[in-house]
From TrEMBL, chain A:
The chain crosses the membrane at residues 7-23, 35-54, 75-99, 111-129, 136-159, 179-201, 213-232, 266-290, 302-322, 334-354. It holds the Pfam family Spore_permease. The keyword Transport applies. This is Uncharacterized protein. Keywords: Germination, Membrane, Transmembrane, Transmembrane helix, Transport. It is found in: Membrane. Its main location: membrane. Belongs to the amino acid-polyamine-organocation (APC) superfamily. Spore germination protein (SGP) (TC 2.A.3.9) family. The keyword Secreted does not apply. The lineage of its organism: Bacteria, Bacillati, Bacillota, Bacilli, Bacillales. It is a multi-pass membrane protein.
TrEMBL record, chain B:
Belongs to the GerABKA family. Keywords: Membrane, Transmembrane, Transmembrane helix. This is Uncharacterized protein. The chain crosses the membrane at residues 231-252, 273-292, 312-330, 337-357, 363-384, 396-421. It comes from the Bacteria. Pfam families: GerA. InterPro entries: Spore_Ger, UPF0353/GerABKA_families.
Length: 364, 442
């Protein structure tokens, strides 16, 4: 059965939840002018890795990445899977911790952080345990139906105070690609690599057309650009650089006369929180896949609470935002490794596999 | 003792048992049956007429007699079973040959009439009733095509009840059909008299909050469901069609919409969707905004709400629960009251909810408005089984909102969405639009 729509919305939602928090400041940090260049370069990188990844997967119809790799060679498989597992656990810790921190700052300053972190683990845990992947895929459609409208509404209203002059210069003066030497650029790539691994874990019944994924990522492009350009266009590059969450700050300054709500960034935040929880549940599912197929087939009813308890414990050990940020920076190398090695490795394995089978066919 | 005497003694205390002799020419026949189930004068007329014609035309009376109905073996158990089924049993005294005749039955149901629980604005208004045959008649007259499959199942050991399954071979999802027929066939010794027993046979979770089936009184709704790949069950003495499985769009779409221009149909559906969201979110939003996140509101509004709650001595959640409790009590009380007393409750409830609680400073003005809107919106969804789920779910959102404010509200909504997305009925996921498509995995 074709599930292009569900897979595509899942793909969009997992990324949409990540864009608006840390991504803008990383991009703004990486260059002084022409911010579209790092955005576009990141986006091209993203398209490239998913293209390679999907090409690699297409050699093995209906199998997921864990079983493909384990079938080839156990040792080689773990060179790819172990970093991926570590990476997934790591970004889950970061996501839970960061989302709780943002919410604590924005709307629930009196609530202890551990309650928020628990919420960010229990709700996604329920999503996974109740529906498994089929439920998650269907949920993505329902969530996008419910929550994309408010997010788009907020995105549209955030243009309220912009000054188009800040758009220039469109082309940087000297050394246009200087930002690639800046660490922040690599940090910003997390917004592109957060959910792409999912495509390799989808079970055989979730067939999709690669075209749907490309269209989905194309829909994400405006979100990347808006999240970076709105702060820059409103405040100017120098001021925007000073803020921790520039986009959220800008949305907070938007004033709409006819709305009964004073702070419309709550809508954005809640929408993003919904996508964030969805992202976390998808990540739990991927971790569960690696463990169940690669190590030991533990019942999800025990495994998922186990993963949640582990993440929760780790989150409790992170004392403040500085540490979170450091963890986030340290994660960059691993992220790049996973984002580059996994698709390329899969492509090579797939290519060899295809060659072997055509050779086998010729022989017979 | 002969079989007929045994039957006589078995029914000797039955006031409605009739054992009648009939003499045609030289042959004598015995007719037995229950007059509560059989219209005797008409049936006897129907039976005597061919026999008399036979004697006049010098035909073999015994041959004509055998052609009146189904030949049965003359044993007391068989005869008793046939009689209990509402058949007329006739025995030729000389040869001892027995025939079970389909009689003119006593009317035992309402005639086909208007629906009592559903309303049809633009479509047909004749509704299903307690009679299985007339229900099938209605269904057939709405869906006159050879592809319609009708299968009968007999359920129960001592107490028998018939269940009829209808579907269309080319539209129904094969996974659904497999699961359904397998469950029905493997549980035929169980009794079916209530929906709970049906749920037991079909193996639905006891702890499911969302209904797995829809019941429709109007045949066009059942026909639409069949065309959309669902299955329809009729249970003896149940005045509605049971449509399996129920899916998400059943909350918002009704067959009646098809009789309106498409724009209005979609507007009406959107309205129902908004109603669903309203009834779920509004009480929780009130509690969240009043007690946890007042800063989200515009200052003027937050101020006026705070002023209206100035004299209310307890937190917003208690206030909301108090009034919701009264509302639920009114809704429950009104169901079983006779029509002559119902208005009294409405009036008393109106007084309580209207001005009195506000003036007594027990709750704020705004809450009355919100709960009224919630209750009205609750009724906007299609199918009363669905309103139960919404009535319950709003409490989840209410409690989470009291705990975590707007974030709690959102989490509650997410939990609901995840719950709805994870439900499956007989292999068919709940979260679907229009067509019920099954998937075998998971």
């Amino acid at each position: 059965m074709n599930k292009s729509l569900q897979v595509s919305t899942t793909y969009i939602l997992t990324h949409l939840g990540l864009i608006f928090f840390l991504y803008p400041i990383d991009v703004i940090d990486s260059t002084n002018e022409a911010h579209w260049m790092p955005v576009m370069l990141g986006f091209l990188f993203h398209i490239l890795i998913i293209a390679v990844y999907m090409k690699g997967l297409s050699y093995f119809k209906g199998q997921n990445i864990v079983s493909i790799l384990l079938k080839k060679s156990k040792w080689l498989a773990w060179i790819v899977l172990l970093p991926a597992l570590l990476y997934l656990l790591w970004i889950m810790v970061l996501a839970v911790r960061a989302f709780s921190e943002v919410l604590s700052i924005a709307i629930l300053s009196n609530t202890p952080l551990w309650i928020l972190m628990m919420l960010f683990l229990i709700v996604p845990g329920f999503m996974i345990l109740h529906g498994q992947i089929g439920g998650l895929l269907r949920l993505s459609v329902l969530l996008s139906f419910l929550f994309v409208t408010p997010v788009i509404f907020v995105m549209a209203t955030s243009f309220q105070n912009i000054d188009w002059h800040y758009l220039f210069p469109l082309w940087p003066g000297d050394k246009p690609l200087r930002f690639v030497t800046h660490f922040s650029f690599y940090k910003s790539l997390f917004a592109y690599t957060g959910g792409f691994l999912l495509l390799g874990f989808l079970p055989s019944y979730a067939e999709y057309k690669p075209k749907a994924i490309y269209w989905g990522s194309l829909l994400l492009l405006p979100a990347y650009l808006i999240s970076v350009y709105i702060p820059v266009l409103t405040l100017g590059e120098e001021t925007a650089r000073q803020l921790q969450f520039p986009y959220l700050f800008i949305v907070d300054t938007v004033e709409i006369n006819w709305l009964m709500f004073d702070r419309i960034n709550v809508f954005l935040l809640l929408g993003l929180v919904a996508f964030g929880m969805f992202f976390i549940s998808v990540t739990i599912w991927q971790i569960q896949c690696v463990i169940r197929l690669g190590m030991k087939d533990i019942q999800p009813n025990y495994l998922v609470p186990g993963i949640i308890a582990l993440i929760f414990a780790v989150c409790l050990f992170i004392p403040d935002w500085q540490t979170t940020d450091q963890l986030f920076q340290k994660n960059t190398a691993l992220r790049l490794y996973v984002a580059i090695v996994t698709p390329v490795f899969l492509l090579i394995v797939g290519w060899l596999h295809a060659k072997k089978s055509t050779y086998g066919l010729k022989k017979t | 003792m002969s079989a007929i005497e045994e039957v006589n003694s078995h029914f000797s205390t039955f006031p409605d048992f009739v054992c009648q002799k009939l003499q045609i020419a030289s042959e004598s026949f015995t007719f037995v049956g229950l007059k509560s189930l059989i219209n005797f004068p008409q049936t006897m007329y129907m039976v005597r007429d061919p026999l008399l014609t036979a004697t006049i035309n010098n035909l073999m009376v015994i041959d004509v007699f055998a052609g009146l109905g189904q030949p049965i073996s003359v044993q007391s158990e068989t005869i008793i079973a046939e009689i209990m089924d509402g058949m007329l049993v006739a025995i030729h005294d000389a040869s001892g040959m027995g025939v079970s005749i389909y009689p003119v039955p006593q009317p035992n149901s309402r005639t086909i009439s208007l629906p009592t629980m559903e309303n049809s604005i633009g479509g047909a208004t004749s509704s299903f009733n307690e009679n299985l045959e007339s229900n099938i008649t209605l269904l057939r007259s709405h869906l006159n095509c050879p592809e319609l499959q009708v299968k009968a199942y007999n359920f129960g050991g001592n107490v028998k009840s018939r269940v009829i399954l209808c579907y269309m071979e080319e539209t129904i999802d094969p996974i659904l059909l497999d699961n359904l027929t397998q469950k029905l066939e493997s549980n035929q010794d169980l009794e079916i008299a209530t929906m709970k027993e049906l749920s037991l046979i079909l193996d639905f979770s006891r702890y499911s909050f969302v209904t797995h089936y829809m019941t429709y009184e109007l045949p066009q709704n059942a026909v639409r469901a069949i065309k959309n790949g669902k299955a329809v069950l009729f249970i003896e003495r149940m005045p509605f069609a049971i449509v399996l499985p129920s899916i998400f769009s059943d909350l918002f779409m009704s067959e009646d919409d098809m009789n309106h221009p498409p724009i209005y149909a979609w507007l009406l559906r959107s309205l129902r969707f908004i109603g669903t969201l309203t009834t779920l979110i509004l009480p929780g939003l009130y509690v969240a905004l009043v007690s946890v996140n007042p800063d989200v509101l515009r200052f003027e509004l937050a101020h006026s709400i705070a002023r209206s709650r100035l004299d209310v001595p307890y937190p917003a959640i208690i206030e909301a629960l108090l009034l919701l409790c009264i509302l639920e009590l009114i809704m429950e009380a009104i169901i079983r009251l006779p029509n002559s007393i119902g208005p009294t409750i409405t009036m008393v409830g109106g007084i309580v909810l209207g001005q009195a609680v506000v003036e007594a400073k027990l709750v704020s003005n705004l809450l009355i408005i919100i709960l009224a809107a919630t209750t009205i919106a609750n009724a906007a969804v299609v199918g009363f089984q669905n309103t139960y789920a919404l009535r319950l779910f709003k409490y989840l959102l209410l409690f989470l909102s009291a705990f975590l404010g707007v974030l709690g509200l959102l989490s509650g909504l997410l939990i609901l969405c995840a719950y709805v997305a994870g439900i499956r009925t007989l292999g068919v996921p709940y979260l679907q639009l229009i067509r019920a498509k099954g998937d075998s995995y998971e």
